Amino acid sequence: MSFPLTLLSEFTEHPIVQAPMAGGVSCPELAGKVSESGGLGFLAAGYKTPEAMYEDVKQLRGLTQRPFGVNLFMPQPDHSDSGSLERYRAQLAGEAMWYETELGDTDHATDDAYEAKLAILFDDPVPVVSFTFGCPTRGVLERFHKRGTFTVVTVTSVEEAQVAEWSGADAVCVQGAEAGGHRGTHRDDPQEDGTGSALGLLSLVTHVKEAVRLPVIAAGGVMRGKQIAAVLAAGASAAQLGTAFLVCPESGADPVHKQAMTNSLFNRTEMTRAFTGRPARALVNRFLREHGRYAPAAYPQVHHLTAGVRKAAAKAKDPQGMALWAGQGHRLARDLPAAQLMDVLVTELAVAREALLKRGSPGGAA
């Protein structure tokens, strides 16, 4: 099966992409509803086995005939320090005792079965494949092109966008500082923690558009149609929304996580390494406050270390021990079915675009 190489806009009726959120959130049911509603639904292959990824693709194909995407995590270098990991293990001993579970083994591969997942997607192509935590080689991207797969590389800087363009990507997903979940940086540099060096979405989109000729998908804090209109006006071809879709009933997120998005108890987000060892934006809860400052730069080792605690906290319906990934716009989340949310976003986008046209017309307001 092959797909013609084309413009990003030809994959969707509306310029709305549902973000690939790992950990079971971006499941076939959610992606299928978004694609059927004229957006671009995405599956997240991160943390899944190749076989589980393939089953998700097969299930999604049974739910929609429209285009969809699959996101892969790039292999990560192992720069973890055993001493730092053991100190963090000791730091978390009380958590394991409290939730009556065990801390996980950190001796795991750091490639997320990348090569095996590539082999499946080369053998049985899907319309779109995106990449997070790095950029594939030119050879990998060329193989996807030959199979008619449109490729997208997540970037957080102009330099990363330029690497993606040089390597042959078809588009870049520009991730602003507002985005929930992991920062998709190509290089994890602990020296940048807390420096505020990450650019906001509109500034970053503008910088990237002036540096590369690739289509841009804008991601980070987008929750309303008027925000989609804003990033399109800044030069993006589409907006990618994660937190907005996380609360939908079709999402695979834990109900406790969904409820926390608009719970007044969680009134802000913060970048933290507490849960996975890589910077990620989450709602500030007890676990983040108590352990964030001690978490080493060790991904995915810390992810595996804390997995049991996070699962036990979810089972106990305790949001204070969970990784509550969320973008800065989380309080704007709307508990709507995905198809209905798509309709609302499309209507809001049309209204915002009409308002922009009126302002720009000779008879419009100054």
Automatic annotation (TrEMBL):
Q: Which reaction does it catalyse?
A: 3 propionate 3-nitronate + 3 O2 + H2O = 3 3-oxopropanoate + 2 nitrate + nitrite + H2O2 + 3 H(+)
**Known InterPro entries for this protein?**
Aldolase_TIM, NMO
Cofactor(s) required for function per UniProt = FMN
| Entry keyword set | Detoxification, Flavoprotein, FMN, Monooxygenase, Oxidoreductase
Q: Which SUPFAM superfamilies match?
A: Inosine monophosphate dehydrogenase (IMPDH)
**Membrane-spanning regions, if any?**
none
What's the superkingdom here? Bacteria
Q: Which Gene3D superfamilies match?
A: Aldolase class I
The record's annotation in Pfam families points to: NMO
**GO terms, molecular function:** monooxygenase activity
Its family remark reads:
Belongs to the nitronate monooxygenase family. NMO class I subfamily.
PANTHER family recorded? NITRONATE MONOOXYGENASE-RELATED
Protein name according to UniProt:
Propionate 3-nitronate monooxygenase
Native source organism of the sequence: Streptomyces ovatisporus
